[in-house]
Specification:
The protein is α+β, with helices and mostly antiparallel strands. 46% of the residues lie in helices and 23% in strands. It has six helices and five strands, in the order αααβββαββαα. A five-stranded antiparallel sheet has the order 1-2-3-5-4, sandwiched between helices. A hairpin with a 2-residue loop joins β4 and β5. α4 packs antiparallel against α5. The protein is elongated and about 65 Å long. The termini are far apart.
């Protein structure tokens, strides 16, 4: 009899904790109400928050090590390798095989292959209309957007796309990362 009561109490606590997790997670992360969906959605949400924290830490390090605004140099050209303090930095042996980063003072862009899809992530300050520019680039390159997630904190925004590689698509992940990076630039900076 006591085993049944203990088990009932355990299930009640589990359901309460799942309700709290679901209430703390934005609704688009949790598609259904079952336990596996709730836990999976919470995991994805925590991953996104972790990336934002890394981005903010990186931004803080860049601010503390950059010269004063009056002596700041103009933005540098793009680089096609991850910076060690980049929120997208990962093992460079794997980097050559599965993905590409294109970082600039304006934005960090990562594109990597995941099965028959590409995962594209960008972290930048909030720029009005930027999401439309990225979508236009993806459509121009014959990618189909399967999923888009937007996370923001203060003036920093993370766009995370899952995109399907179209039959007409003839670009590498390096070219994709560079094209998306260039969408962040104004004509004055990119010329």
């Amino acid at each position: 009899m006591s085993h049944i009561a203990v088990e009932r109490n355990r299930r009640r606590q589990m359901n309460e904790h799942l309700k709290v997790l679901r209430s703390l997670t934005p609704c688009f992360y949790v598609k259904r109400g079952d336990q596996a969906s709730i836990i999976g959605g919470v995991i994805e949400f925590i991953k996104e928050l972790h990336q934002i924290v890394q981005s903010l830490e990186s931004k803080k390090r860049r601010k503390s090590s950059s010269p004063s605004p009056s002596t700041a140099p103009s933005p540098k050209p793009f680089q096609l390798s991850p910076k060690p303090d980049s929120p997208f930095a990962f093992n460079t042996d794997q980097f050559k095989e599965v993905g590409s980063c294109c970082n600039s003072p304006i934005a960090d862009v990562e594109a990597k292959i995941s099965g028959s899809n590409v995962i594209l992530r960008t972290i930048s300050r909030r720029i009005p209309g930027q999401i439309v520019k990225i979508i236009n680039v993806l459509e121009k390159l014959s990618f189909e957007i399967l999923h888009l997630n937007i996370s923001s904190m203060e003036d920093t925004v993370l766009f995370s796309f899952v995109i399907k590689i179209g039959l007409e698509c003839q670009v590498s992940v390096e070219e994709l990362a560079l094209e998306v990076q260039q969408s962040f630039c104004s004509e004055a900076v990119c010329v």
